[in-house]
Design brief:
single chain, mainly alpha, Arc Repressor Mutant, subunit A, three-stranded antiparallel sheet, 6 helices
Length: 152
């Protein structure tokens, strides 16, 4: 199947940007002593504001026991707090600590830091051209039908 040159170029850009972003993020994760699953848990908790053990396990595709074990390590590292749900004391609610938020922010900066280096290599005209093109892509991408997300 012959693909359109535009799509080929988008794929190449996506491959380069993902490779650079993930390489830097994985390096940061290793240096912080956290696994990608730990970061997945932290990002999920940040996105939701709070999470239960079972909900987090479902999101990560692991059992509640495995989720609970992972969360215990994050509690010991003071990245999350596990508290009782005020409406049901049997249920544990998990929230990020300030340190957990800081770790996530540093991870995001590590993942995106290479973009500043890239921007320094571009002229003002190139930056403006790319910005206009990306604005078009962002607007068009927003109009695409969203995939069905599983209920949580």
């Amino acid at each position: 199947m012959h693909s359109e040159p535009f799509v080929d170029t988008l794929k190449k850009w996506f491959e380069v940007s993902m490779h650079r972003s993930m390489r830097n993020f994985i390096h940061y994760a290793r240096n912080s002593g956290l696994s990608m699953s730990h970061f997945g848990a932290l990002f999920h908790i940040q996105h939701r504001g709070t999470s239960g053990v079972t909900e987090l396990g479902d999101h990560l595709g692991v059992t509640s026991a495995a989720s609970s074990q992972m969360l215990e390590r994050l509690v010991q590292q003071e990245l999350i707090l596990r508290t009782e749900d005020p409406d049901d004391r049997r249920v544990k609610q998990i929230v990020l600590t300030d340190e957990g938020r800081r770790i996530l922010e540093e991870g995001i900066r590590a993942r995106q830091g290479w973009l500043d280096d890239l921007a320094k290599t571009l002229s003002d005209d190139e930056k403006e051209t790319i910005k206009l093109a990306l604005d078009i892509l962002i607007d068009k991408a927003k109009t695409l039908k969203q995939p069905i997300e599983p209920e949580s």
